Amino acid sequence: MGELDGDEAKALAGSLRELFNQATALLVEDGAAAPLVAKIRDHLGCELDQVLSVATRLDSWEHVNLQRGVDAYLAAHSPGAEWFGVVGQHRAHHEDILGMLYAARHGMPHGLGAADYSTAAAGPEESVEVVQLGLAPTTAPDGTPVFVGIRGSTEFGPPLCRLEVLAAERGAARAVGAEVERLMREHDAFRRKVLSFEVSEHRGNELLSFLPRPDLGPDDVVLPDGVLESIEQHVVGIAEHSERLLAAGQHLKRGLLLHGPPGTGKTHTVRYLMSRLHDCTVILLTGRAMRLVAQAAALARRLQPSMLVIEDVDLIAMDRGFTDGPTNPLLFNLFDAMDGVGADADVTFVLTTNRADELERALADRPGRVDLAVEVPRPDAEGRRRLLELYGRGVELRADLAPVVEATEGVTASFIKELLRRAVLDSVRAGHEGAPVIGDELADLARGMAAERTSLTGILLGGTDRPTVGAKLGAEPDVVVRARRAGLRR
């Protein structure tokens, strides 16, 4: 047989391709994909070529809410619906479910099987089962047959989960998707929870964790007189009167800045606010997770009343006059987030910093960014006594506190907390039975922690940075709470 010319070679290739397609179709008809394709076709009443998909992509941490929304939809429209899945190799390479069905029809080793499940957090101590890959037959609100499908994030794909609605009519699929999204918000697992954004190095994954809500009372917070009351009036008072304020045309969004040396109690004060606002959603941003401030602000608006806490905000909001290089782009993300929430939103932005004097002035240029700044100073003598009594609860505190108060001048709340911890440890090591006993040796321990030989440890714990034992710091400001309506004080 002679060589084929170009046209003959093309014709032969076309014939071989057609033969291959027909053979594949016959194999699929008799193979594992037949029940899968038939299940889709029989419920929708059309061939697979006529099936369309309306998909919604969501951040992977929304998987628990997607499951809640779909469960609520199925309970309302098809309570007896049973989930099924797609089995076989190479499923991870297909991002969407409809793509798997087409691949199955064209010979990929996919077939009908059980749905895949995984778990997702629904609270600090609660996890629920979620569909990782599956479909459930149901109907649209107008009775049109549809499938709802859930596809969780995969190892090789982006950190997203998907709602996929399969139908013969686009309008029906869109109606189902819209109703599922509404039910997601109605049954939102994040509402009234304490949430923390985190960042994983794995594919830049964005994570959202549940944290237990603190249980603190006013007696657990040691601040100068009037400070805690001012904070509560600004944060809690507005929340309690939100309806009347809106009716009077007043904005609800507010910004609070807590500033002061490390270890003075800024984070502890935030924890008290979390405890006080038990019906409020709290979202925490720290460290590298600050780059997610836009997502956090959007979530705060969705879940209002809410409080968005950004710790050590100076990491992204240093005054542009302090830097010679380019401005941190996250600063503008922060501005956009704070301004974009809307004045009518019951959202509190709480910022903490150890370096208020280096913060960007524009933070306070507009109401709703920072309209109250509160200094959390090193405790005075009375404050140190109260802290000793607070952290001494649960032990037998026999010590004369006067010399301890004197020996701890200039230190912070964190220093005193560590002082009591070490005293308890010493008591336990000494073999005391029952509750630890702390006597007058507490004053000697305080002097030792403040001594020059442990000066670095003392500074790290919020102690004095003076080189001699008992050296006094400069006087602390008398005015602790400063409400500022225009510009951060320099």
UniProtKB/TrEMBL annotation:
Domain AAA+ ATPase span(s) in chain numbering: 252-380
Signal sequence range: none
Gene3D superfamilies on file: 1.10.8.60, P-loop containing nucleotide triphosphate hydrolases
UniProt cross-references to SMART domains, sorted A to Z: AAA
UniProt-listed Pfam families: AAA (PF00004)
CDD domains, alphabetized: RecA-like_protease (cd19481)
UniProt keyword list: ATP-binding, Nucleotide-binding
PANTHER family the record matches: 26S PROTEASOME REGULATORY SUBUNIT
UniProt family annotation: Belongs to the AAA ATPase family.
Protein name listed in UniProt: AAA family ATPase
Source lineage: Bacteria, Bacillati, Actinomycetota, Actinomycetes, Pseudonocardiales
